[in-house]
Amino acid sequence: MKSVKTFILKHGSLYILDQNLLPGRVEYIECRSAEDVADCIVRMRIRGAPAIGVAAAYGLALSIVRYQAGDLEGLRNELERAYKLLRSTRPTAYNLFWALDRVRRRILEACSVDEAKEIALNEAMRIEEEDIEANRRIGLYGKELIEDGDRILTHCNAGALATAGWGTALGVIRSAVADGKKVKVYATETRPKLQGARLTAFELLNEGIPVTLITDGMVGFVMARGYIDKVVVGADRIALNGDTANKIGTYTIAVLARRHGIPFYIAAPTSTIDPGIRSGDNIPIEYRSQDEVLEIGGVRIAPDGVEALNPAFDITPGELITAIITEKGIVRPPYIENIPRILDL
Questions:
Q1: Within this chain, do residues 148 and 68 fall inside the same structural domain, yes or no?
Q2: 310 and 337 fall within a common domain
Q3: In terms of pTM, does the model score above 0.85?
Q4: Is 274 a catalytic residue?
Q5: Which residues contact 261 (CB under 8 A, 6 or more apart)?
Q6: Which of 214, 201, 210 minimizes the C-alpha distance to 150?
Q7: Which element (helix H / strand E) includes 345?
Q8: Is residue 89 domain-shared with residue 195, that is, in the same domain?
Q9: Are 312 and 245 in contact (CB under 8 A)?
Q10: Cross-strand pairs, 315
């Protein structure tokens, strides 16, 4: 985005954009500890798998940088405490675990407290820089799949707000537009947190990219009427066989896209691919508070006594995915053979 960053590192604190307030207000929350960052992740003040990963890396680094004692053993105890806390925030987004494991591994190589502090912050900063570069490369590969005049459906928010910058699914769209292609985006509102209505529409409007908001239940209608040429969405975790966890409702869109012969693309960095999971059957799904479904903006919309089911994600089988766009190139089926190749497994 041109003017709003997901997070800012300044004066020893991480300032996280409170995405729960968008599009009405642009406010940042100062995070000085792993606890502060964990709270922002749990409350979805920051969301999107890549952004969560970067934020968690900084949260771990903050816990080390602010460690006061001078002994390495005590620092490592603090590392484990912060590491476990941040790992417990959200179970589905693999970038969270990938980033934490990477920073933790590097810190454990340190031979002194001062070295550990320097390593922690530098590694978190490197993860942020690499995410931006990965998104740019995803855009470069993905724009080749977009044709001039395409009408693209996207679900949830996989833009700059969901990453360290540029975005994954929206990064593909941005790159196509920067290449001179004229596109139109259809964004689902994305119940229950309305990331499409609040965030995706906000980003695209800010970029001057034509966007039409639709309710989640309109997807079949707009596809049947020929309004959609391609679908591009992000991902929170990808298994080795291509099965993909993404915002709830993605699976439905993929089924409808197959029914109407519309290409369905996933855009995600390789840090979203979990090499330890062979299929989507083993991807943990986060269930969130019923209140997110029963209320909108704090106002209850359902009768008292009604219960709600609120899985935050669903699994789209790899067989419904036309291709996965990564910073290392476009991966096509059979995923069980081609994903391990890009991971050098």
A1: no
A2: yes
A3: yes
A4: no
A5: none
A6: 210
A7: none
A8: no
A9: no
A10: 245
Q: What is the mean pLDDT of residues 44-72?
A: 96
233, containing H or E segment: strand 230-233
Q: Tell me, what CATH number does 260's domain have?
A: 3.40.50.10470
Report the SS3 class of residue 184.
Answer: strand
Please, what is the angle between helix 113-142 and helix 49-65, to 10°? 170
Q: Tell me if the bond preceding 91 is cis, omega within 30° of 0.
A: no
> Which of these is catalytic: 131, 148, 229, 236?
236
Pairing of strands 323-326, 329-331: antiparallel
ω into 192 cis (within 30 of 0)? yes
For residue 334, whether the previous peptide bond is cis, meaning omega lies within 30 degrees of 0, is yes
Distance CA(230)–CA(245), nearest Å, equals 19
Average pLDDT of span 86-105: 98
pLDDT 10s digits, 146-177 = 999 999 999 999 999 999 999 999 999 999 99
Domain count, the chain: 2
How confident is the model at residue 220, as a pLDDT? Answer: 98
DSSP letters of 270-332?
GGGB-TT-SSGGG----B--THHHHEETTEE-S-TT-----BSEEEE-GGG-SEEEETTEEE-
Structure tokens at 17: 């954009």
